[in-house]
Every structure is written in C-alpha cells, then in structure tokens.
Design brief:
Largest interface: A-B, 23 and 30 residues
Helix content of chain B: 25-40%
Number of strands of chain A: 11
Distance between the termini of chain B: 50 Å
Distance between the termini of chain A: 43 Å
Structural class of chain A: alpha+beta
Strand content of chain A: 15-25%
Order of helices and strands of chain B: EEHEEEEHHHHEH
CATH topology of the largest domain in chain A: Uridine Diphospho-n-acetylenolpyruvylglucosamine Reductase, domain 3
Order of helices and strands of chain A: HHEEHHHHHEEEEEEEEEHHH
Number of helices of chain B: 6
CATH class of the largest domain in chain A: Alpha Beta
Radius of gyration of chain A: 18 Å
Number of helices of chain A: 10
CATH class of the largest domain in chain B: Mainly Alpha
Strand order of the largest sheet of chain A: 1-2-7-3-4
CATH architecture of the largest domain in chain B: Orthogonal Bundle
Number of domains of chain A: 2
Oligomer: heterodimer
Largest sheet of chain B: 5 strands, mixed
Largest sheet of chain A: 5 strands, antiparallel
Shape of chain B: globular
Strand content of chain B: 15-25%
CATH topology of the largest domain in chain B: DNA polymerase, domain 1
Structural class of chain B: alpha+beta
C-alpha cells in the first residue's frame, strides 16, 4: 500500500487476502507441530499460547518490540516472511525454530524450509503465483527455550540496528542443539549463524565458551554493513553483545523452567 | 493514489460503515483508503494524514476495538465494521475525560497528532484502566508528536485515569468555558 501511494509501483490489480482469514488465521498445536496461518496477526500471536510457554518465550520478547500496537493488529506472519527484509523479527525467530513454509498455488502445494526461501532483499524462492499459506515448526523438546533481542534507541517502531534470535536445548549444562539467527549475516536478509552454532553444539555453556563464541567465532562469519543508521563496526559489536545476552537469557530460562 | 489509476476500470463498491454510532452506506473505489473515506466522504477531519505509511500514528482509528492506522486500511476492508474517531468520543456539547485531561495539562501545541494520541489513549484505557508509565509509553510510542509534548502526554493519561476512576467520563463544554 505504501509503495502504491508513493507511486513506486503501479500494479494492475491488488488482491486483498484479508477475507481468507477465516481459514488462515490459526495458531495451533497439531500432531507435534506448531502451526501458524499466514494471516495470523502479530497481535494474535502475542495473545496465543506461544507467549505463555517458556520454550517459546522468544515470541514474548518479539511482541513487546514489534513496531507499534496499531501495526501489530494489521501485520501478519505471512507478510513478515513475504517481506524478506532483514528486520523481519518474526522471521528471524522462526528461523531458529527450523520452520517450514507452505506455498500454495493452483498447481498444488509444497513445503519450503524457511532458510531456503530467501534469495535477496525482498526476493523469495517462490513463483509469483504461489501464496504463503502457513508456517510450521516441530514442537521443541523440554530443556529448551528461545529468546529474541533487538537493539534500537527507541521502543515505538524500533527497527533494530541488530536483531538476534536464539533457540537452544541445554541438558546437564551441555548444549544439545542450538540455532542462532541474525537480521543479516552478510546478505540482506535474515540468516542463521551456522559456524557459531557448530562451535557451541556439544559444549558446556560456560562464560568462557560464550565469550569465545561471541568474540572469536561470530565475527569470522559475519559481515556487517554501514548505513545512515549505524556503522558496520558498531553493528558487529552489538551483534556480539546481543548474542551473549541472548545465550545467557536462554540459560536462565531453561534453568527457571 | 487514485490519479495513477484509470477510474472506469475499477467500479464503485458499496460499503457499510458504522462510524461513531451512525450507520453509513458509501460507494468507494476498491483502492480507496479508509482515511480518505472518513475525511472526504464523511467529513471526519479529525482523522489526520501524517506520513501515510503507518509510521506516525496521526490517522489511527478504533475499528472493532482494535487500534488501526486508517491510511493502511482499504475502505472495503472496513465493510460492516464499527469505527470510532475522535468526533465520536463524547456526545455533542461534551468533552471526554481524556480530552479534558489533555487540555488540563496543556499538552496541545500544534495539535495535529492529538486525535491519534487521544484515540490511542482511549484504546489503552479500555483494555487497561490503570496503566503504568511504561505501559503508557509503549502504546504512545507509536504516536509521533512534532512539537515534542510526549512528557505531558504521559501526565495527561494519568490525569484521565484519575477522572475516569472518579466516575467523571464527560465534561460539559459550556461549564468548562464559563468562569467559576
């Protein structure tokens, strides 16, 4: 709508998907999966079972910092994914949950891993005739939790200089599984920090390990950009700090249950 | 928005709106935004267009109990919905407690953002009658004020809470205007 108003794009027709909300606005658990309809709004996620479950506490982190209340009532999870923008908070969190996206067209439907969906800024590995219908992820085991951290100077409309989301399963103080996603690792869309994940997997989450992961491993795979909002150096430094905080937050969340 | 599109290709659609307790049936083009219909078809000019892209919060209205930016909602999507704008906050000749509170703390400078701020406050107080400072700031964080009256907004919301708790919902404008 904004692009049309500004006369940046002149589409021949625009299709309002809102009437499909009758079918596509669900947030439910089913057969070991958590399924979210593409037209579920951020506000609906913020009042769903997800924010009350310690394992999915990342959603509760997301809710308090997602744009503004009046945007949360309109913004949908499908739109957040479809925007393919580095600062799509919900998408970053869903990446850490190893989510899959259902694409539907008249030819049928197919599931695509969320981390295979992005090709570039606002570019998706999907045909223009395909519609994002649903996103789902497997229920995570006990002893695991999620966290999302975002840094900006303000609350309302905070886009975040850096956004990081982490999922981890920690048992007997050893990291069984970990997935880390940033707003950007080097390319202009949200991605996983796979080298840092690999380093952390199987290790005890001690202060030294966290320190090493943040200051030595992460910078090797991350390339940040400078723009009018923040410099690359500042963004990289923030990424390290936020990753450390996110790991510590998850640790205490798992311990707290 | 409309001038780049051929008018005839997009016929009018009838939309039923219930605005401030009154029912309307308006003919709109499919691409018309709610803000344009409210302002130019119904004459409700309290709905201000600031940025036109959902960033400033000047155009928010309460639609079916939800705070929405009317510049990002197509009029057709508002079909059969109940909409509240600033005009509908208090009956003719009265001021709502929130409006009174915003006047009392003299938070009005240019006033352009106020309809949005007051509606956001109304929406907040409807679901949370005694918000903390933090909760007030979180909600009003989406309302940009060019004059920078933000601190007074927080003061005003707290005063409005006090009025509402005392049961004072409406104030008579005549009484407020006449000297004591």
């Amino acid at each position: 709508m904004v692009l049309i108003r500004d006369d940046v794009v002149r589409p021949k027709a625009v299709l309002d998907l809102w009437p499909l909300r009758k079918e596509l606005a669900f947030i439910k658990r089913e057969g070991g999966w958590v399924k979210i309809g593409a037209l579920a709004t951020i506000e609906e996620i913020c009042s769903s079972f997800l924010v009350r479950d310690c394992r999915y506490a990342g959603f509760s982190d997301m809710c308090s910092h997602f744009a503004t209340p009046y945007i949360r009532s309109l913004a949908t999870i499908g739109g957040n994914i479809g925007a393919a923008h580095p600062l799509s908070d919900a998408t970053i969190l869903l990446l850490t949950l190893d989510s899959e996206v259902k694409l539907v067209s008249i030819r049928g439907e197919r599931w695509v891993k969320l981390d295979k969906l992005f090709l570039g800024e606002r570019k998706l590995a999907k045909d223009s005739s395909e519609l994002i219908a649903e996103v789902r992820f497997k229920e995570v085991p006990e002893n695991s939790s999620t966290a999302l951290l975002k840094f900006d100077r303000r609350w309302g409309h905070s886009m975040g200089y850096v956004v990081v989301a982490v999922y981890a399963q920690i048992k007997d103080n050893v990291v069984r599984e970990v997935r880390i996603a940033f707003d950007s690792i080097g390319r202009p869309f949200p991605e996983r920090a796979k080298k840092t994940e690999k380093f952390l997997r199987g290790r005890g989450l001690s202060e030294d390990v966290i320190e090493w992961a943040c200051t030595e491993v992460l910078p090797k795979e991350m390339k940040r950009i400078s723009d009018y909002r923040a410099s690359a150096e500042y963004r990289l430094e923030l990424s390290k700090v936020l990753l450390r905080r996110a790991l510590l937050r998850i640790k205490s969340r798992i311990r707290g249950g | 928005m409309s001038n780049s599109l051929s008018e005839d290709r997009y016929p009018y659609i009838k939309v039923k709106l219930s605005v401030n307790g009154r029912d309307y049936e308006v003919s709109v083009r499919p691409y018309e935004r709610l803000i344009d219909v409210l302002r130019y078809k119904l004459g409700l000019t309290s709905v201000k267009e600031g940025c036109g892209r959902g960033e400033c919060g000047a155009c928010v209205v309460i639609m079916d109990g939800k705070l929405v930016p009317s510049c990002l909602v197509l009029a057709v999507r508002a079909n059969n919905k109940k909409i509240l704008t600033l005009e509908g906050l208090a009956p003719e000749g009265k001021l709502h407690a929130i409006q009174k509170a915003f006047l009392d703390v003299m938070s009005v400078q240019c006033g352009y953002c106020l309809p949005g701020v007051i509606l956001a406050t109304k929406w907040l107080l409807d679901k949370n009658p005694s918000p903390t400072d933090q909760e007030i700031k979180e909600v009003l964080g989406g309302q940009l004020c060019r004059c920078g009256s933000y601190l007074r907004f927080v003061k005003a919301v707290k005063l409005a809470v006090k009025y509402l708790k005392e049961g004072k919902v409406y104030f008579d404008i005549q009484e407020l205007m006449s000297p004591p």
